[in-house]
Write a structure and sequence with these properties.
CATH class: Mainly Alpha
Number of domains: 1
Number of strands: 2
Helix content: over 70%
Structural class: mainly alpha
Order of helices and strands: HHHHHHHEEHHHHHHH
C-alpha cells in the first residue's frame, strides 16, 4: 500500500510592494508629526500668509529684517529658557535679569571710569551668579522653581531701581557712547550687517548660530540627554547616574548667560538703560517656548521650536504696525497663538501616539 502523495502548499503570497511603501511613508509622517516644532511651523506659515495679505508694507525685504530683529532679541532668551523648561523648571526672573545685567555693566564702567569691556565682563560674572543662585536655591531648598525665581524677580526688580537711583541719582544710567571700548563692544553686540543693501542686526546672526549650536547640544550630546532625563523623570534619572543637581544649576546659568547677552545688546543699542524695564518679558520667553512645542511639565521640546515661536512674535509685533492697527491687538494675537499652539501640540501628540 503506497503512502498518499501530498502536494506542498504554495508559499504565502508576498505583500504588495505598495503596502511596504505606504508603511514607510506612514512612519515618516508619524515621526514628522511627533516633532515638537510642527505646531509652531504651521502657525508661522499661517501668520506670514495672513500679514502678507493684509499689510503690503510687510512684504519688502527691509520689513523682513525688522521682523528678524524683533525675533532675535526674544529668541536669544527663549533658547535657554526653553532648555530650562525641557529640564522641568521655570525662571520668572529672566526678564528683569536682562536689565540687571545692562545696569551692572553700564554703572560699573561709568562710575569707575574704566574701559567698557571691564563692565561687560563684570556683568557676565554677575549674570552667571544670578543663574547659579537660582539653581542652588532650587537644589538645596527643594522649593518649586516658580517660587524661587519669583523671589529673585522681586529682589532684582527692587535692586535695579534702588541701586540705579543711589548711584546715578536718576532712574536711568548715564550715556556711555563716548567711553573707551564702546565702538568695539557695539560692533559685537549691536552693529548692522548689510546684505544686498538691507541692514540686518548682528543679533540675528548670533541668534541663528546659537539655535544651531543649541540643537546640536540637545540632540547629540550627553548633556542634552541629561536635560531630557531630569525633565521627564528626575528620580529615575538620578537612579541611573544622571547628575540632576548639576544639570539644573547649569541650565539656570545658561539663562543667566542669555540675559547677559541680550542685556549687552540693549546697552550698546540704546547707550543708556531705564532701570524699570524688563518686567513681563519673562512671560514672552515662556510663551515663545510653549508655542515652539515645549511642554510645561518638562521632558519634551526642542530648540528649533522656540526659535520659530520667536519668529511668530516678530511677525505679529511688526505685522500689526505695518497693518496700521492698534498696538493693543498684539497681546490678543499673542494669547491666541499660545492657545492654538497648545491645542495643536496636544492633538499632534495624541495622533502620533495613536498611530
Amino acid at each position: 500500500m503506497t503512502a498518499p502523495v501530498t502536494t506542498p502548499s504554495p508559499p504565502p503570497a508576498a505583500a504588495p510592494g505598495g503596502l511596504a511603501r505606504r508603511n514607510v511613508e506612514r512612519s515618516l509622517v508619524t515621526r514628522f508629526l511627533a516633532r515638537p516644532e510642527v505646531g509652531a511651523l504651521v502657525g508661522a506659515i499661517a501668520v506670514y500668509i495672513f500679514f502678507y495679505a493684509v499689510a503690503p508694507a510687510f512684504r519688502p525685504a527691509g520689513s523682513l529684517s525688522l521682523v528678524l530683529y524683533q525675533a532675535s532679541t526674544l529668541g536669544l532668551m527663549a533658547l535657554p529658557v526653553s532648555l530650562l523648561m525641557i529640564g522641568g523648571e521655570f525662571d520668572l526672573s529672566a526678564g528683569v535679569a536682562v536689565t540687571s545685567s545692562s545696569l551692572c555693566a553700564s554703572m560699573f564702567a561709568y562710575q569707575l571710569n574704566s574701559n567698557i569691556w571691564v563692565g561687560v565682563l563684570v556683568a557676565l560674572v554677575f549674570s552667571l551668579g544670578i543663574g547659579f543662585f537660582n539653581g542652588i536655591m532650587l537644589v538645596k531648598t527643594k522649593l518649586p522653581s516658580f517660587l524661587v525665581t519669583l523671589g529673585t524677580f522681586l529682589m532684582l526688580q527692587g535692586l535695579n531701581i534702588a541701586v540705579t537711583k543711589l548711584i546715578t541719582g536718576n532712574v536711568a544710567t548715564n550715556d556711555i557712547s563716548n567711553m573707551q571700548g564702546f565702538s568695539s563692544a557695539h560692533a559685537v553686540f549691536a552693529s548692522d550687517v548689510h546684505i544686498a543693501g538691507v541692514a540686518v542686526k548682528i543679533t540675528v546672526f548670533w541668534w541663528l548660530a546659537l539655535v544651531i549650536l543649541g540643537s546640536w547640544m540637545l540632540l547629540r550630546t550627553k548633556f542634552g540627554n541629561w536635560i531630557f532625563a531630569v525633565g521627564g523623570q528626575k528620580e529615575s534619572a538620578r537612579a541611573v547616574g544622571v547628575p540632576v543637581a548639576r544639570t539644573k544649576i547649569t541650565l539656570f546659568m545658561l539663562v543667566g548667560l542669555g540675559a547677559w547677552f541680550v542685556g549687552m545688546h540693549n546697552l550698546f543699542q540704546f547707550n543708556t538703560i531705564q532701570s524699570g524695564t524688563g518686567v513681563g518679558n519673562e512671560l514672552l520667553y515662556i510663551v515663545a517656548a510653549v508655542i515652539g512645542g515645549c511642554l510645561l511639565t518638562g521632558g519634551f521640546g526642542s530648540v528649533a521650536g522656540p526659535a520659530i515661536g520667536a519668529f511668530i512674535f516678530g511677525m505679529v509685533s511688526q505685522g500689526i504696525v505695518f497693518a496700521g492697527w492698534d498696538a493693543n491687538w498684539f497681546q490678543f494675537f499673542l494669547g491666541l497663538m499660545l492657545l492654538l499652539a497648545m491645542l495643536l501640540n496636544t492633538w499632534v501628540q495624541r495622533q502620533a501616539a495613536r498611530r
